[in-house]
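Progress report, Aim 2. The chain analyzed during this reporting quarter is listed below.
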Amino acid sequence: MQYRNGDEVPAISLRGLGAALRRQAVWILVTTSLGVGLTTYVVLRQRPVYEARATLRMPEQQNSQPTDVLAALSGPSTVETEMEILRSRTVAEAVVDSLGLRVSITEPRGVPRDSLFGSLHVAPTAQSGTYLVRRDSTAFSVTSPNGLTAGSPYGMPLDVGGLQLEPLPLSPEQSGPTAITLSVVPTGAAAEAVRGGLRVTRPQANAGIVALAYQSTDPVLAAQVVNGVAQSYIEQRGHTQKLTYSKAVEFLEKQVQTMGDTLAQAEQALEQYRRAKGLIDPDAQASDAVRRRADLQAQSDELEQQRSALWTVVARSRQPAESASDWTSLVSSPALASNPAISTIVGQLITLEGVRTELRTRRTATDADVARATSQIGALRDQLRSMASATLQTLDQRFNALATTISQSGVQLSAVPEAQLQYARLHRQVELNTGLFTLLQTRLQESRISEASEIANVGIVDSAMVPSTP
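Predicted structure tokens for the chain:
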């Protein structure tokens, strides 16, 4: 048949289509049957995968008081930070050790542990490799990776190369595998496997709730891993919190002792001067001009101390982020106590540098966690330098204005006895030291109560249940 142009094609007729299907009916039937058969085979061979889930309540970020040394040392923690800790290798390694996850069943595949073993534990020093377990109705034997074989009757677990186990005996009908192959891997590899299978999510962005999920062909093991990760995280965080409180108490005890000695010296100097000059009632003896001059001079001294402390902050903030700096001496400084923003940043720096120092004991400087901490320290130092510089400008203006006022009052105070002026200065120093000493004692008692209470600010909302369906 000829067509006048290329656009003219014959329409497909139902009769022609039916004839084509009849001619290829055998091939269509064979192909369909083969596809259905392969699909059925793959589905039947696929091992079911179970997922266990748990939810945790996380601590909320709180604003601490500027003079709260304990809060400055612990520092606020975000939910995102806690989620990274949940994913950490340290938490995973603790779960590996507690659940014996270094060992896995390679043959028969997909069979839960509790259906083959009455007990199965692996020591941290266990030799890595393949272990072969053979069992019958009365006894069992274990062959280690180096070829050594040991046997035992049921009821007496074997310890072979750090692998402690006792399989379940075979039934009289000989049901179940007689040979079981176990694989023991290093702790680091097992921990990375746990981290790879663990999912940590935040269901609601504005809620301090975190969800944990883990998938496994063994439903019991899936629930154990999720609950193990949650428990390991809570225990490690409690240990860290306890250590933080202990360090805060130790730090505050030293500060209270130092400030107590300073206060005693100031009181002694005041009493000696009063006796030497024969001052009975300095307030009645001194005129308003004397008290005003003493107050102005005391304010000038305080401003000078604050300026000196802020210059120290600026100098230390200019150090490279990789360097360590002792910020604890600045936490109780009156200059920082009067500036909540700077005090909070100094407290965060203390915490971050402490965390980085602890990480450096176990990791290198190129480690991701160490590098992240160093980057955060650098950002905080830049922010601290900017805030301290701005505050210094304000203090310089106040200091210059106060110096002018003091200079103008010098003529009026030329006749004021120097003894009364010096007494006012010494008395002012005693009052300042007394206030700071009382504040430190209050914080010390609060820290001791927190250390003894051991109240956790994280907890399990829903524990993981053994999933019943894949």
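The chain has a mean pLDDT of 76. The longest strand covers residues 50-57. These observations will guide the mutagenesis work planned for the next reporting period.
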